[in-house]
## 1
Amino acid sequence: MEGILELLPGYNCGKCGYNQCRDLAENMRKAEDIGLCPFMGKQQFSENRKKLKELLKDRSDGTNIIGVIDGLEADFTLAPLTGEPSCREDIHPIDGTELKAGDLVRYRPLGCPITHFAKVIKTSRGMNTIHMVGPLQRLGNEDVEFLDAGICLIFAFDGKVEKGRIPRVGETVKFIPTHCMMQKVHSGIIVGVEERNVRIEAIDLKVW
């Protein structure tokens, strides 16, 4: 990390989204991350840019996070918050199905071919926060009844960055939820960061 830090401008201006250059250096993983610093594009840092690209090649060896189903590269994997069984998701049934806390639901996220099973942990104004309990498992009981919520919009994820760099607020990111059966890359916008815990909104499964 020190080698990367020495090649950054050292202005600690915060324009990259981090408090200081040291924080940016700790989270740089690939050549594209150089563009986070608005000063690195200037001529006076051209040699530093070249050296940074070489350093980041070494840093990214063996750490690339690639989606299984789509082959796209993600910024990080998203694991459950401490003590929770899966990432939290905020969902809304397109057909207006009303859910309540404690409901076990069967649904399919818009843009995903896999049927999901979940437990509702809270509801508010049509938004339902859930924990995944499927698609493969049925709470260990094939006789469990699930409410059919049909196709649902996925609005947000709450979880912990497990592997990869910690993003900054306002950044559009690509990520893979660790519980995703297809290990597909999702995208969204970071609206909250607290240590490694993040909230991602504007979720999109159509990632190019």
## 2
Amino acid sequence: MDSDGFEIPEGLFCYDVNGSCPKSIRPNSKRIPIYAAIGGTILITVCGNLVVIISIAHFKQLHTPTNFLVMSMAVVDLLLGSMVMPYSMVRSVENCWYFGDIFCKVHSSTDMMLCTASILHLCFVAVDRYYAVCNPLQYKAKITGFVVMMMITISWMLPAVVSFAVIFLGLHMKGVEEFYNNHTKCTGGCVLFLNEASLVFGSMISFYVPGVIMVCIYGKIYLIASKQARAIKGVANKAKEASRSRISRNRERKAAKTLGIVMGDFLLCWFPYLFCNIMDPFLNYRTPPVLFEVLVWFAYLNSTFNPIMYGFFYIWFREALKIILFGKGFQCGSSTINLFSD
């Protein structure tokens, strides 16, 4: 019964209490395919990134600065697929949050942290590729094991501190508490509600500024790589050593191109959600919730696409996948197998 004495039909709300969020009413003919599609996406995300992590960790030939950054980024995507996406799936399909208010904050903080960590990893990968392609003679001196470890540490620690501090200290709600309590808050909901300052500052720091930096870096890499390619093409075949150096440099350019495509995929997947999110406060929070759900899943797909692109562009990924699937990775000395010719 509601406050006016009218009976509330069963199943229309997340909980049988006053102020409960309305539940999504979908027949099983729609609910089951949606769960199957999202569940399949989560499985591909987890398994694909797990293969990337195992491959780079196991095979010594893949122990390079770039690949360690790629492996750390794959860990970010793996955690997103295993710790964030399953709970988001239930929330999206049912329009209800059944896991409690505290875990809602943990989930939102983790989601924000992993999104920011992804783009910071991509930023550092861009820096790594810049030195490899544009300053190859300084590459080993500049990009040392210590430098890579610092890059990875910053990519994890900075987003973790900022994300959890913003959510658990309530900084994201300053000045909009009354609006949230009157128009959005309900029992059984888990909405990442951000004020204008949090949205603008957070989006600029975690997406727009790094995105512009990466575009500029990869633009310069592309120009220099194109110039090098033309120079190499114009030089006649020389000694074997020169040929070996040319192959090595071609590999560096190909790696830069591939990782540039990975970066472009990230920007394409996340931009619609972040643009809609940053505009929402200025539209008086009128964006339909269902649109947010669709856009956030489109953004999550970035973590699904990354290992698929590795498989398409990198021969080492395909070879490592074969070795892992056929159980050859457990054989003695498998870590020294050549996945590609030097």
## 3
Amino acid sequence: MNILITGATGFVGQSLCNFLSRKEQVNLIVGASRSETKINGCHKTINLYCDNGQITVQDQLVKHLQNIDVVIHLAGRAHVMRDSGFDIEAAYYKANVEYTCKLAEAAAQSGVKRFVFLSSIKVNGESTNHPFTASDIPSPDDTYGCSKKSAEECLFKIAKNSTLEVVVIRPSLIYGEGMKGNLSSLLKLVKRRIPLPLGAVKNKRSLCSLDALCNLIWLCVMHPNAANQVFLAADNKPISTVELVNAIAKGLGVKARFIKIPQFILKLVGFCLGKKDQMERVLGNLEVNVEYTTETVEWTPEQDTQTALARLLSSTSNF
């Protein structure tokens, strides 16, 4: 089997390339990246962009995808909380919708069998009263989530009109070696033993292990039941923000320090600082039900987020 992975130098991409390189069924792994530097686990690296930053024209994409059996599309514009500006919607559309659709169209023309797309739980929404399920009607709240939803719709339209099989994976917040973003920022605060005003927070949020996610992507490549499906990805049980901080502290070998401040005060402070959405994400619930995923492709998610996260941090010096 020959596999092409976009975003191969990214957080998920690097781990996935190494993971797939150990599979006997995989003959060739092509890593697609803006730089053609060597990627561990990949047999070959290519650049799908022109010199001006635009995606390669369609006939060149088709040429690159000759003899490729499966495309795993990880590349895209990631969600960044500080994103703002007049053109941000266009930037997300270009990276997450236009690029995805052009690549999938070329894959269909090239005879690629399956297209696995890493989407986001943000397609379902930002918060939950009841755990999200794969059958929920999408309800994204921000530009990033809307762009991922539009990309999914485009992919299934292409699949309907071709022989290309599409698989969509919507992971919750991913943790693993090399993680960045909000988890990395929280890790730095805990490492410095800075007291966090989260002692009164009692919420439930689902995280997703990078190792388990790589295994799910592999199952979506191989499993016949995965064709033209949407799968949610998360650890088996959600944890609270306090439990998350305690797990990080345990892994780093420090003691977590909390200050108990009522949630309504934290929300008010967030509103006054223009950080209302960010505060809601820290304080609110986001639970994910992965039963459909586990039953359909026989996936085993991480069972204990706290233990897995603590173990990861205690065994790695990269944090």
